[in-house]
Amino acid sequence: MMRTGRVLLVDDDADLLRLLSLRLEAAGYLVDKATSAEAALSALAVRRADVLLTDWRLPGMDGMALFELVKKSYPALPVIMLTAHGTIPDAVEAVSRGVFGYLVKPFDSTALLSKVEQALSLSSPAVSQAGQEYWRAEVVSCSPLMEELLAEARLIAATDASVLIRGESGSGKEILARALHRASPRAAGPFVAVNCGAIPDNLLESELFGHEKGAFTGAATRHDGLIAQAEGGTLFLDEIGDMPLALQVKLLRVLQERELRPVGASKSRAVDVRVISATHRDLEALISDGLFREDLFYRLNVVALHLPPLSERREDIPLLAQHFLAQLAERYGKEVAGFAPDAMEYLCSLRWSGNVRQLANAVEQCCVLNTSGLIPLTAVQKAVSDGMASIATLAEARRQFERDYLEKLLRVSAGNVSVAARIADRNRTEFYRLLQKHDLVAAAFKDF
């Protein structure tokens, strides 16, 4: 049977390195070779492997020291040690510290291929099944940082653990969440995405948890909430840091008890969902300020994934820009092949504070206004400079409107919370929570 996957082979014995490489390549694996631990680390920085196969004894840094560094930087990468009889006790100890396994020299091809295949099935099950990379198809990247993140995500996906995705706005947190869902045993179930900052607070409870008929004015029929709609699948809670404290208590019950109670219901009902949440906010700071429950944080943060900003994976910019351009050219019926070299160089030089979303918006303007086969530098400069590339999302626009509205109320009321809350038709407690959400202090407006 032919296999697929990339193996990084590390050994200072040139003959053994050549022999092992031939055996692995004959079985269908792609093989990268290094003669030292230092060279192996350099190779991983350039191109991630699916399995690391290293000799224990190496010049300079030994195999165990290499493993310790790999464990810190590439925690999802399985490591197999090649060891002599004299170091078997050390190898056994290494396994207890996280090494995937070891092979005692001399070993035959069957043992080698069996161990590599076992490690490969752990590190990337989709790699060993041709055509099964669909789970990450929406993630357009060639960055080693992203490859390591996806390798971790692939391992996490196989479990039912709650995941917290942290990263800047526009970096692609929902795309990563969808990839996790598609790679999980729940892939056949629904994926329900909820932006906690985009739904008005007074509607969020009903939208999430559902309500019974007559539960409140206007509740003419029974309504299944979004949590119930995610039954058997994945619930993605974006901008979880914007969730009101009162609802955080109810969400905690869903996570702890695996049950929910709709608004107006007399009893709870069982629910089976996997929760993935995301935020660009500092949840630890919100906890300190009393705006986010610490117990909920630990329930959500069973596993954390940190999505790097586009500025830390600049090698993805040309790939993403061309990907968006191809999609947009088809949508708008444009015949455009790509970017002029100086235009692409300019794209790669920018910081992209709005990340992938900002890049996509800039490319869209370039495509819409383009009249030639290549996007010129002037078009890219215009798309970035006139602000089109940083148009806010609907959720961001709503948050900005809410903050502007609160500031106006506080100016009109000269910082009097009772008056401002009455104008806004909100009680004082809810109004104070809105002020905290936007870091506004009423006393600062008393002199207006």
UniProtKB/TrEMBL annotation:
<dbReference type="InterPro" id="IPR002078">
    <property type="entry name" value="Sigma_54_int"/>
</dbReference>
<keyword id="KW-0902">Two-component regulatory system</keyword>
<feature type="domain" description="Response regulatory">
    <location>
        <begin position="6"/>
        <end position="120"/>
    </location>
</feature>
<dbReference type="InterPro" id="IPR027417">
    <property type="entry name" value="P-loop_NTPase"/>
</dbReference>
<keyword id="KW-0067">ATP-binding</keyword>
<dbReference type="GO" id="GO:0000160">
    <property type="term" value="P:phosphorelay signal transduction system"/>
</dbReference>
<keyword id="KW-0805">Transcription regulation</keyword>
<feature type="modified residue" description="4-aspartylphosphate">
    <location>
        <position position="55"/>
    </location>
</feature>
<dbReference type="InterPro" id="IPR011006">
    <property type="entry name" value="CheY-like_superfamily"/>
</dbReference>
<dbReference type="Pfam" id="PF00072">
    <property type="entry name" value="Response_reg"/>
</dbReference>
<dbReference type="InterPro" id="IPR001789">
    <property type="entry name" value="Sig_transdc_resp-reg_receiver"/>
</dbReference>
<dbReference type="Pfam" id="PF00158">
    <property type="entry name" value="Sigma54_activat"/>
</dbReference>
<dbReference type="GO" id="GO:0006355">
    <property type="term" value="P:regulation of DNA-templated transcription"/>
</dbReference>
<dbReference type="InterPro" id="IPR009057">
    <property type="entry name" value="Homeodomain-like_sf"/>
</dbReference>
<protein>
    <submittedName>
        <fullName>Two-component system response regulator GlrR</fullName>
    </submittedName>
</protein>
<dbReference type="InterPro" id="IPR003593">
    <property type="entry name" value="AAA+_ATPase"/>
</dbReference>
<keyword id="KW-0804">Transcription</keyword>
<dbReference type="Pfam" id="PF25601">
    <property type="entry name" value="AAA_lid_14"/>
</dbReference>
<dbReference type="InterPro" id="IPR058031">
    <property type="entry name" value="AAA_lid_NorR"/>
</dbReference>
<feature type="domain" description="Sigma-54 factor interaction">
    <location>
        <begin position="139"/>
        <end position="368"/>
    </location>
</feature>
<dbReference type="GO" id="GO:0005524">
    <property type="term" value="F:ATP binding"/>
</dbReference>
<dbReference type="InterPro" id="IPR025943">
    <property type="entry name" value="Sigma_54_int_dom_ATP-bd_2"/>
</dbReference>
<keyword id="KW-0597">Phosphoprotein</keyword>
<dbReference type="InterPro" id="IPR025662">
    <property type="entry name" value="Sigma_54_int_dom_ATP-bd_1"/>
</dbReference>
<keyword id="KW-0547">Nucleotide-binding</keyword>
